[in-house]
Amino acid sequence: MYNYNYEQKQIVLTNILGSFLQLDETEQKLLAETCHVQLFTYNEIIELSARPSDSLYFMVSGLVACRTFAREAEEVDYLQFYKQGQCFLSLDSFSSQEKLNLELVAFDGEVTLVKIPSKIVMLLRERSRSFEMFLFLELKAQLERMLIFELYCYQLFAKNRVIASLCYLALFYGQDQHNGWICLPHKLTRGILASFARTSRSSVTEVLTQLVAENLALTGRYKMLLDKNFVLEQFEGFYFRDF
User: What's the whole-model pTM score?
Assistant: First the structure.
């Protein structure tokens, strides 16, 4: 982890947070004096549920994953992802039962985020209408999207669950290649996809093999692409497309 100095923080807050939150000069100064801008590399731990920070995180760049695991069996379950422009709460916001063995980790080569202490979050919510609205709408959208995904995806059989998970991750965390394909996050392995879809690696391999044969997917070393029209058709008329 690398902590930005004051001058580096000012640049990030002005160029990134300013465009999202529309804070005035006094509020930006308050953030510069109290928040931390941090750089993490892939798989580096940002926070553990055993030692939550009681903060709000704002994603400047990269991807972050929230995952849980059983230390004895070394089993990992990926629960959620966060990308540039999103914010998320500290693991301290989970109940004691829910946050057991949870961790936030960098899911990209480089992840830059702003860590805002909870007392500053409360102060900004009182002083800035734009900050209050951004926080409310962002967290509301994340919660609704997560609940809809759980209701939709986890009711399906294994094969369709893999397809739904692939398309969900492509829609919200993939990169449009502007040639009819969407590239999924580079660190997304078949094992991680199986974890996220709550199924087996063999089911993931079977589905990907079928999609490749139908020219709906391309797979190779360090990449996984889906046909953009196929992704959109999976959620045709579905609430996901409103996000």
Answer: 0.86
